[in-house]
Design a protein that fits this description.
Layout lengths: L12 H6 L8 E4 L2 E4 L5 H20 L5 E4 L18 E4 L13 E8 L4 H11 L7 E6 L4 E6 L11 E4 L3 E4 L4 E4 L13
Parallel strand pairs: 5-6
Antiparallel strand pairs: 1-2, 3-4, 4-5, 6-7, 7-8, 9-10
Length: 194
Amino acid sequence: MIAVLKIPIRMTVAEFLAWNPPGGQTWQLVDGEPQAMAPANRTHGAIQNELGRLISNHLAERKSHCTAVTTPGVIPHVQSDTNMRVPDLAVTCSAYETEETALTDPVLLVEILSPSNQAETWANVWAYTTIPSVHEILVVEAATVGAELLRRNSDGTWPKQPVRIEKGDEVTLECIGFRVPLTSLYRTTRLARS
C-alpha cells in the first residue's frame, strides 16, 4: 500500500517548522500554504553553485564576516507568521552564535528564474522586499544569459522596476562589494557557448 502525503491546508511558521514531510523534498510556506519546490534542473543548479562559489570566494578574500548560504529559509516582514520563503542563495552578515531555522538579517537574496516558475519566483522577490535588512535582490535567468537586479534606494524604498543586466554587462552587488561579468555565472552551463 502506498502512503499518500497529507498536506496541511493552512499553517503558521511554527507549525511548518515542526512539520516533517517525508521524502526529503524542499518546501516553502506561502501565505500559510506549504508548497513543494521542484528539484533544480542542471542549468539552474550550475548557476546556483557557480554564483555561490564566486561570492563565497570573494567574501573569503576580503576576510568578510559575511557568509553565503544556499537555499535558506527567510521570513518576509509582512505576514511573518505564515510565510517562510526559500531563495536559491543568500548572504548574511549577522553573527552566527546559534543554529537558525530561518536566516536572520540577509543583506542579499538571489533567485534563479526558470521559465516554469516565473510567477512564483517574482512573488517571492516582492515578498523579500519587506525584509528590512535586504539591500539587493538578484534574479538570474536560467533559460538565457540575463539577470535583473533590485537595489534598495538610500531612503529605504525599492525601485518600481529592476535594472536589467544583459550579456556583456557586469553584475555589481554593492552590499558585499562584489563585481563579476554576468557570463561568469554561466561558466559551467550549456549557455556559456551561446
